[in-house]
Amino acid sequence: MVDGTGIGDPPDGLTGTEIGMWQAFRNGSVYDLSSGDPDVDDPHGGQAWGPGRSVRARIVAWLLLDGPPALSGRVASLKLKGVQITDALDVSGGGVVPYVELTRCRFEKEILVPEARFTTLRLVDCSIPRLEGARVHTEGDLHLPRCRFHSGVRLTDAHIGTDLLLNQAVVYRDRRGKSIMADGMSVGQDLQAEMLETHGELSLRGAQIGVSLSLRGSRLSNAYGSRALNAPQLTVERSLYLTPAGVGNPLQTSGTTPARGTRVQRFECQGGVRLDDGRFGDAVDLDQARFHLENDQEVSLRRIQTPELRFLCERPQRGRIVLSGAKVVNLIDRAASWPGPGGLRVGGFTYENLIPSGPFPLSRRLEWLSAATPEYSPEPYEKLATVLRNSGEDADAREVLLAKQRRRRETLPPAAKIWGYIQDWTVAYGYRPGRAAVWMAVLWAASTLAFSHASHPAIKPGEAPHWSPALFSLDLILPVIDLGQDGYWQLQGGWQWAATALILLGWILATTVAAGATRLLRRN
After folding, report:
1. pTM of the prediction?
2. Which positions, given as ranges, span the membrane (predicted)?
3. Residue 166 to residues 144, 146, 192, 358: CA-CA distances in angstroms?
């Protein structure tokens, strides 16, 4: 079709296939060269596509950068399906106005779009050696679903006006071991990378996502470095999802949680994760996530800030979970999700509310703290006690503080450790003050019975009060207070030693009670 004026006619030197693409561009229609055979049309398969399905990359670039005008009543756009693009497609620094959508196409060499500007760019289920798009700018979407990139994707400092879609894409590493390098990228709305498969580091350092970042059902791996996901200083205005995706028919990659009974694919990560200093406006959701770590690898959430952390993943068998310095309002967790001793770091981790998913008794919570503090630190215990007390669980808060004292006791020198054991056995460091009354009652009853058989001549006959073993014992047990019995009777032999022991025990009990009362008053 020609407009009759000669303006926009195909130039000389084009192949028949390229002339068809030229005319489809002016008409705004889909240029489909598919054969109808699924095996032959698979862009990722081994079937060769001949010249009849091939166009040169420079002709594609010509259409995108300086294409002919649309036919009357049409909108010029490049819509290709089942087409092979030979050579490297290079529109670096150019301004691409037409709508671009390439479906199930095969690129012979890399796509070069650094610093280019697009309205919308959609590459769907394409085979691409590499996408080089540093500082690329789109006013609308950048869609790359189900594409395969054989040497990585670079979107460093890219600006995506609305959504970036990487659902079900497969990305292999480049020469530097990166699968997707998107440091400093900004996305106006959602970044959906659900059921994404990467073989190399996914780098999102300093990226900014306007709504949510979804990695539902994705499988990230990096056998060539320490991290599979490297995203420090990531900002997500709403939520980060490292959760399952439904794999039914149709695939649930719409940003929703699969319904009960739906077959799901969990998020899996083979390698370390770094989200240090991230800011998440709503939540970080790790529901059912699997982390396969080596001993020296981490899931690092240092200093992240989010209203809600849903730590509901599977327990990593190796490596560490690091929450040092993180600030969370609601911590939703499961007892079975946390790693054992040596696998958790929570120094400086603050949270306001604990919302366990399933049974999480206090004994397990104390094991959680013990696992997180291989070297004694009072701060995690005090934080947990504060949270429990603020939620009205005063008894549990006291148990946590008692556990703190017992952990501290193990770090003390022998003499202080013995004194600690005495405080623990008597009044549980003041957190169980009722014990003191029991011990004093037992001691008083035993000493009363003993002194009722003691020889007790008066020191000054005629001045001594009436002998009372009960009052005499109580006068010895209670320091400072004088009940008018001690000092009037002369004990001999072993009874002197018994009285001395009773005075010492009284002082110990009184001291521990005073220490407990001080802690109680301080808490109140």
Report:
1. 0.81
2. 497-521
3. 5, 7, 6, 34
